[in-house]
UniProtKB/TrEMBL annotation:
It comes from Streptomyces hundungensis. Coiled coil: none annotated. Residues 42-273 form the AB hydrolase-1 domain. The lineage of its organism: Bacteria, Bacillati, Actinomycetota, Actinomycetes, Kitasatosporales. Its EC number is 1.11.1.18. Keywords: Oxidoreductase, Peroxidase. GO terms for molecular function: bromide peroxidase activity. This is Non-heme bromoperoxidase BpoC. The gene is bpoC_1.
Length: 289
């Protein structure tokens, strides 16, 4: 395992100053950051469409890392990781498993947000011994209603945001109410707290590959979720335009050990960031129970 930061490094106190490291996966370097205690089952964070290391809310990461070892990473071809981005969720899941094993880990918990939640479901079903528990946020099952519309919705909102000189997440991740837009501004400000050693933004080529993978997932026949026997915590905002909130209710109902967090009010795709205090408290309670 190769680390791009010089070893040994002191445990970083916050995500803002966690060094970016790398590990070789089949000859390709995968970028990652980790913080929190060294003992216990590590929690791997699986990111959303177009996201890189710097798109994780530092409040969520820091609060989780107060009690758990937390690892964020860029999958193949994303951000600072090498290689080219696959255009299926299944291939992304395989790469994630290879990354986890390259770190020398034999059991993990997973927190998958949106597209990361699709990947987490595949890993949990295919690698039952590797995954102890999982948290699925702002996500849905294969073939879930509205998931195949993510591409058109994303492009529309990116154009709208460009015309209004705003970040697209104002529209894609948060409601248009005063409360929702205040949460958007606060979240986007938190993402800028890290000033040194920031990640590369996603390339257009990788973004397109991810959009293709999401569309395929949305058009796949519904899968047998009874294969996922691990405990699963499911969370979402009540007004998610990207992955409609009914998908979360469907996951909770169909997963044998699914547990639903009541949908966050006046919140959308970024519900776990808008309600970071409540979400982290519930997530830690679930992981430690």
């Amino acid at each position: 395992m190769s680390a791009s930061s010089s070893s040994p490094t002191p445990t970083p106190s916050s995500y803002k100053n966690a060094p970016t490291r790398s590990v070789s996966v089949q000859g390709i370097n995968f970028a990652y950051r980790q913080l929190g205690p060294d003992d216990g089952v590590p929690l791997i964070l699986l990111n959303h469409l177009s996201a890189v290391l710097d798109n994780w809310d530092p409040r969520v990461v820091d609060k989780l890392a107060a009690r758990r070892r937390v690892i964020t990473y860029d999958n193949r071809g994303v951000g600072a990781s090498g290689g080219s981005t696959p255009d299926t969720i299944e291939a992304m899941a395989r790469d994630t498993v290879l990354f986890i094993r390259a770190l020398g880990l034999d059991q993990v918990d997973l927190l998958g947000l949106s597209m990361g939640g699709f990947i987490a479901q595949v890993i949990a079903a295919q690698e039952p011994a590797l995954v102890r528990k999982l948290i699925l946020a702002g996500t849905g099952p294969a073939g879930g209603p509205g998931i195949d519309k993510v591409t058109s919705l994303t492009v529309q909102d990116m154009l709208k945001a460009t015309l209004r000189r705003k970040d697209p997440k104002h529209y894609l991740f948060f409601t248009q109410t005063e409360r929702g837009q205040r949460a958007a501004r606060e979240f986007l400000a938190r993402l800028k707290e890290r000033t040194d050693d920031r990640d590369k933004t996603i390339s257009v080529q990788s973004f397109r590959a991810q959009l293709k993978a999401i569309k395929r997932w949305g058009r796949t026949a519904p899968q047998d979720l009874s294969r996922i026997q691990q405990p699963v915590l499911v969370a979402n905002g009540e007004s998610n335009r990207m992955v409609p909130s009914e998908n979360t209710l469907d996951l909770a109902a169909r997963l044998p050990r699914g547990e639903l967090v009541p949908l966050y009010p006046d919140a959308g795709h970024g519900g776990i960031f808008q309600y970071h205090d409540a979400f982290v408290a519930r997530a830690l309670e679930f992981l430690e129970s």
